[in-house]
Amino acid sequence: MLNKPLIAVPLGDPAGIGPEIVIKALQDAQIAAASRCLVVGDRGILEQAMTFPGMQPMTIRTVEHPREVADEPDTLYLMDLHNVDMQSFVLGQPSAMCGRAAYEYIARSIELAMAGTVDAVATTPINKVSLHMAGVPYIGHTEIFAALTGTEDPLTMFEVRGMRVFFLSRHVSLRRACDMVTKERIIDYVHRCKAALRQLGVTEGTMAIAGLNPHSGEGGLFGDEEVKNIVPAIAALQAEGCDVTGPVGADSVFHLALQGRYNSVLSLYHDQGHIATKTLDFERTISITGGMPILRTSVDHGTAMDIAGTGKASAVSMVEAIRLAVVYAPHFRKE
Predict the structure, then answer these.
(1) Whole-model pTM?
(2) In this structure, how many other beta carbons lie within 10 angstroms of the beta carbon of residue 267?
(3) Which residues contact 28 (CB under 8 A, 6 or more apart)?
(4) Which domains does the chain have, with CATH numbers?
(5) 8 Å CB contact between 161 and 280
(6) Distance (Å, rounded) from C-alpha 241 to C-alpha 219?
């Protein structure tokens, strides 16, 4: 069926587990039934990955344009960029060649999505060392997508078992993260998070703001961030008609969201939300990048070069990333 969402899947760093988990994910019955996938990568790398222990080979069909992607069983549709020299390729080792190849897979996938010829992009792991060795001027996926889509400050949302979590701050110290919990920042982020949810077609439900301190500060007994910044921000948002509540104690807000009480949670620092989602289900915690003109989902694990080529890599996260891309693609719209 050609009306299935068409998902571009860049292969990731060729020296990591990306090729293996892509092949395994495309053989998953759920993915085969719900989607069409176009792998952007290198034929030699995929052919090698199919020889790993326990791997089931697929027919590789090379295409020049996404419209050539059909719906044949046990067939991997590939846009072959021919950018890996198999004579010098070393599995499990960072390299400039692999960093450059991984970047080119992503760039081509973004190009296809921006042109509207694919419905979404589901990304696989890349290696920061390889990117650096290749002279790629971006540290990771989010930065690449921001630059190539012209997005000033993309949002990261995690989703696992229907629970959605945004992050007020990410890669800063805990001390700095506390300083970033300001009324103005919370108001700005809630508006941006709500816009990101609308992009995905999520228009109903309440967003919960997590508390920062134990028991949300108990009225200032255990810290005054709630009193000074979080409660005033929520009050201002509610006065605007924004469906938001809190602060809800961080020891209960994620459980309540999982039960369906809230459509999303704003975590006030990196580990607060990461611990909640990854403890619930590490492999099925998927990253969705919001605020861009295209839909991007991603596995939330690394290249695992230490097990590359062993056939041991789990494709659960890759399957989930493609599944969520399929779920949201029909509803996605630019903001």
Answers:
(1) 0.92
(2) 27
(3) 315, 319
(4) 6-153+292-328 (3.40.718.10), 157-277 (3.40.718.10)
(5) yes
(6) 25
